[in-house]
Specification:
Elements: H1 3-15, H2 18-24, H3 29-43, E1 48-49, E2 56-57, H4 59-81, E3 92-97, H5 105-115, E4 121-126, H6 128-136, E5 142-147, E6 162-175, E7 194-198, H7 204-214, E8 222-227, H8 231-239, E9 244-248, H9 249-257, E10 261-263, E11 271-279, H10 283-288, H11 291-300
Parallel strand pairs: 3-4, 3-5, 7-8, 7-9
Antiparallel strand pairs: 1-2, 5-11, 6-9, 6-10, 6-11
Helix pairs in contact: 1-2, 1-3, 1-4, 2-3
Length: about 300
């Protein structure tokens, strides 16, 4: 049995898609499927129901998932105990959601370095789901990501506690006209095909946007002209006047104040989102003494991301 089979299975259980899971693991779908099949052959029972769309874990798969996570965690902890980290860069492994890199990360690092000198960070950035997988697999010590009740995340907070660092909103914006008004308005969604700069539906922001649109009493009529998981790309295209994009408010606050962009809908079209820091099995505490307590104190002192 190969540890990669366990990691493959955990990714599949989080993503419920052989195609996306294979992409996340950087292998072809056929190779990924063979590895999942090899794991099932080794265990001697089917873990995935391939007849459903999307594929779902069998009852045995649900039972095995917790055991797989524990096995991967123990192997990662053993590598640390045996001095694996002494051979590489010794910084805390911090995974950051891509859209937080520019706005929240620098300020937070400055704040924590004022409290604890000598901290080093080994930073990786990517999509939120990649960070959740890295956290559950023990490949990062800390995860900085957005959280929304609209999009439940598969993180067991008893195993991976979190601290809220700050708040933001996901707001719809459009190019501003000469009067500072949006060139595209969501109130006009029923009248014409509004150009939409969209996130893929399986991404964190994509699922929030789909939830906002789905629960509107009206029937929005959009024409998706661009789709990308990169919020910075959508920001650039919105400023070019190509359509409406939902973006974190802190990312567009200056554009709005300088009338380059304008909010394209009322508050019902926006969603509150928290900025949270998750710890992997409290290894941050084990590796750096009172780091977790200091992060919590920063919150109590209002020294959080603003």
């Amino acid at each position: 049995m190969d540890i990669e089979w366990l990691e493959d299975f955990l990714v599949l259980s989080d993503m419920s898609s052989f195609t996306r899971a294979a992409q996340a693991r950087n292998v072809t779908q056929s190779a990924f499927s063979r590895r999942i099949r090899s794991l099932e052959d080794w265990i001697g029972i089917s873990l995935v129901d391939r007849d459903t769309v999307p594929p779902r874990l069998t009852m045995a798969g649900h039972l095995f998932r917790d055991a797989a996570r524990e096995m991967v965690r123990q192997l990662q902890d053993t590598r640390i105990a045996l001095g694996h980290r002494s051979k590489v860069f010794s910084g805390l492994k911090l995974f950051v959601a891509q859209s937080l890199v520019q706005q929240a990360l620098p300020e937070w690092i400055q704040q924590i370095n004022k409290r604890i000198s000598g901290l080093k960070f080994d930073i990786h950035a990517g999509e939120t789901y990649e960070g959740v997988i890295a956290l559950s697999n023990g490949r990062c010590d800390l995860l900085m990501a957005y959280h929304s009740p609209i999009v439940p995340m598969s993180i067991d907070e008893k195993m991976s506690p979190s601290i809220t660092l700050g708040q933001d909103r996901l707001v719809p914006v459009s190019l501003a006209d000469e009067f500072g008004s949006p060139t595209h308005r969501l109130s006009e969604a029923k009248l014409r095909h509004l150009p939409l700069l969209a996130y893929p539906p399986e991404t964190f922001f994509g699922r929030i946007c789909n939830g906002l649109i789905r629960f509107r009493p009206s029937d929005p009529n959009f024409n998706v002209i661009v789709q990308t998981a990169n919020a910075r790309v959508l920001h650039t295209l919105a400023r070019a006047g190509l359509g409406i994009a939902w973006l974190p408010e802190r990312c567009v606050a200056q554009d709005i104040s300088e009338r380059r962009l304008a909010v394209a809908g009322d508050d019902e079209w926006s969603a509150k989102i928290d900025i949270r820091l998750y710890a992997s099995h409290e290894r941050a505490r084990l590796l750096n003494g009172n780091l977790w307590d200091n992060i919590r104190d920063m919150k109590n002192d209002n020294l959080v991301v603003r």
